[in-house]
Known about the structure:
With 325 residues, the protein is of the alpha/beta class. It folds into three domains: 44 residues, no CATH class; 153 residues, Ribonuclease H-like superfamily/Ribonuclease H (Nucleotidyltransferase, domain 5); 90 residues, no CATH class. The chain contains 14 helices and five strands. The chain has a five-stranded mixed β-sheet, sandwiched between helices. Helix 6 runs antiparallel to helix 9. The longest helix has 18 residues. The relative contact order is 0.13.
Amino acid sequence: MIAGFVRGLSVRDVEATLADALGAEAALSKSTVSRVCEAIKTEFETWCEPRLDDVELDYLFLDGSCCKMHPGARAEPVLAAWGIDTDGKPVFLGLAPGGSESTDAWADFLEELKGRGLRPPLLVISDGASGLINATETSFARSLRQRCLIHRARNLLAKVPAHAQTQVKAAYWSLFDTDHAEIPPGPDLAALVQARIDGFAERYQHAFPAAVRCLLADREQLTTYLRFPVEHHRRIRHSNFIERTFGETRRRVKVIGRLPGEASCLSLVWAVLDRASRGWRGFTMTASGLRLLQDLRRALLEPPTHLHPNPTTKPARDDTVAAVA
Length: 325
């Protein structure tokens, strides 16, 4: 029954399925439905408790999806976090109501994860929501940030007339085509793409100035992924990893309409995401990729401690000064 609800079936659908399997006497009462929902809620609360001290991330994905969880209120975001650990395995980390996607809402969510022991990742991947960006740069100040290329493409194309969108879309994605570039991952590869962005801006600045301004805003964060292993580029340059799963969530809860409350909403969304997370693909970890990630970790998160002079050792006095004294 729990699996049926998580798959998005209505009470009537679950009843029909049980009746087919067990007979007409297998009808669901309100108390049975209540017990099923309570079971999901208990599992969710148990999932929220464990510490995250042993989780070491290379990549952290952040996003929110709106659900109707309060009577008479607009849809409100559910904030989610998951990532890829240093073994290349996906990890579902956190889920919480946001009220909005403001800086405060995201900051509270991230600080709660840090309070459970989550350490800074190497790279945070997200859309361009200002509240999310502000909170990320405060909570994980040493981590690098990648702005989702798919969201940026949507923003840019929204400022281009329909007749030119196919051309501009192809030109946009060609900026990030580095499959045949003979430059290893790092600042030089990012500089190559930044130079292409300059060429795009020069080509389209007169025809579509708003689109060009959109591309140039926060442009440095469009190429951060190029500092990471080549085999990861296609999956860390956007937050589609989250988008697809949230799409499943929206489809599953659509049969319910407005969820009966915040706790029920979170429990059901968690159940869908938790089930989906069991099928997530991990990342390939090659020897060269691991070395690159280790170098980035040392540079970003484990910088060498600067040596300070021994406070008990007095500097030698200049002979001239000594003589004057």
